[in-house]
């Protein structure tokens, strides 16, 4: 869990600016280059990292749930079939399952992160809690979403998020398991 969390913190250094531009381009029907220019003009480099902390606050619980659940489901499957490991296709299924569960449980964090990333760019929206600390801003954003739209607002977009992340979990974690298994076989073959 610690390794996954550290990996997410580093990956977000690249992922967040891309997310900021993508989400603003989608939300405001603008070209990505226009969004980049306007963001740099309004907020400079800091604007590209708007939502960095909230992204990490989404990614760490997501990674902790996904990776620990993936390992546990693989162990359970291996135990059930009375082996010590699972096949790569089985790891794909476990990855899809764990990704889907993690995606669903962390959807409210994703909704809050998106709202925070869009703040300051859209001058028509109130930014009453923009200057508060990151955890306070995050909690306030979740609270406001819940007050305005209820549980449906907190889980907005849950279905496509779960579908895409379950596919990604199958590909990424299944691919990892396939490479890991192939390398082990390769090493064992060449040691003989």
From TrEMBL:
PROSITE patterns: SOLCAR. PANTHER family: S-ADENOSYLMETHIONINE MITOCHONDRIAL CARRIER PROTEIN. This is S-adenosylmethionine mitochondrial carrier protein-like protein. SUPFAM superfamilies: Mitochondrial carrier. It is a multi-pass membrane protein. One of its GO terms (cellular component) is membrane. Keywords: Membrane, Repeat, Transmembrane, Transmembrane helix, Transport. It is found in: Membrane. It comes from Euroglyphus maynei. Belongs to the mitochondrial carrier (TC 2.A.29) family. It holds the Pfam family Mito_carr. The lineage of its organism: Eukaryota, Metazoa, Ecdysozoa, Arthropoda, Chelicerata. Transmembrane segments: none annotated. InterPro entries: MCP_dom_sf, MCP_transmembrane. The keyword RNA-binding does not apply. Solcar repeats lie at residues 1-76, 86-182.
């Amino acid at each position: 869990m610690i390794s996954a969390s550290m990996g997410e913190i580093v990956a977000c250094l690249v992922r967040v600016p891309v997310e900021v531009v993508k989400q603003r381009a989608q939300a405001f029907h603008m070209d990505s280059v226009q969004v980049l220019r306007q963001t740099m003009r309004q907020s400079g480099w800091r604007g590209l990292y708007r939502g960095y902390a909230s992204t990490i606050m989404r990614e760490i619980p997501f990674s902790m749930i996904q990776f620990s659940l993936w390992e546990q489901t693989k162990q359970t499957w291996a135990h059930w079939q009375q082996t010590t490991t699972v096949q790569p296709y089985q790891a794909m299924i476990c990855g899809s399952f764990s990704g889907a569960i993690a995606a669903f449980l962390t959807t409210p964090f994703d909704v809050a992160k998106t709202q925070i990333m869009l703040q300051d760019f859209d001058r028509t929206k109130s930014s009453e809690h923009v200057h508060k600390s990151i955890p306070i801003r995050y909690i306030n954003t979740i609270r406001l979403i819940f007050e305005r739209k209820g549980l449906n607002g907190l889980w907005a977009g849950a279905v496509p998020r779960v579908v895409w992340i379950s596919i990604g979990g199958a590909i990424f974690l299944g691919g990892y398991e396939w490479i890991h298994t192939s390398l082990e076989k390769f090493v064992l073959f060449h040691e003989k």
